[in-house]
Amino acid sequence: MTPVASQSSVQSSVGSIFDSLPPRWLLMVESTSTTARKTVQDLISYHLAQGSYVVLLSASRPCFDLYTSLQEQKVPQQNLLVLCSVCTNDSKSVGNTLHLKQRQSLTEESIAVGVIAQQFKNKKAVFIIDSLPTLLMYHSPAIIARFMHNILVQFQREQMNGIVFSLKGAVDTTVREEIAQLCDNVVSL
Ligand SMILES: [Zn+2]
Fold this sequence. Notes:
The protein has about 190 residues and is of the alpha/beta class. It has one domain: P-loop containing nucleotide triphosphate hydrolases (Rossmann fold, 3-Layer(aba) Sandwich). The protein is about 45% helix and about 20% strand. Strands 4-3-2-5-6-1-7 form a seven-stranded parallel β-sheet, with helices on both faces. Helix 1 (about 1-15) crosses helix 2 (about 35-50), helix 4 packs parallel to helix 6 (about 140-160) and helix 6 (about 140-160) packs parallel to helix 7 (about 175-180).
């Protein structure tokens, strides 16, 4: 019984994050590396259950692994779009997945985010970025701070809701501050 109880408490804590936010919001959510995968999946499941489109910019988990896990939990996936930079380009596609051609290419990610943001403009959509810790392994903090700034400003302009997921204590403070400044709230789970 313990796993069931802990799962429902995590899910309700994910849901309560969104109770007191304005209609349009940007949020930074931090968790530990132990709970990261589950936290991101809970965020996805919660917003799909709320009837939102969810776009995941993913660099931390192969898309097929996520889709399998959501399927096991009977989460409907038709409103989920994954921009995956984990699998190789010739991976067998599952669900609604766009595979980015080059891993960790900020230019390609920026262009993809821009195109998608236009498509989901004025729809009930949440953009979740789980790639921050991974991107910081490949690029300097200054470059990532600018990249995140540009993406979040774009979300504000297109009136999209967005979540930047991060790991507690693992992200450069300059980058964290840049993101936190543009977000309505920083939530630590
Ligand atoms: Zn993939």
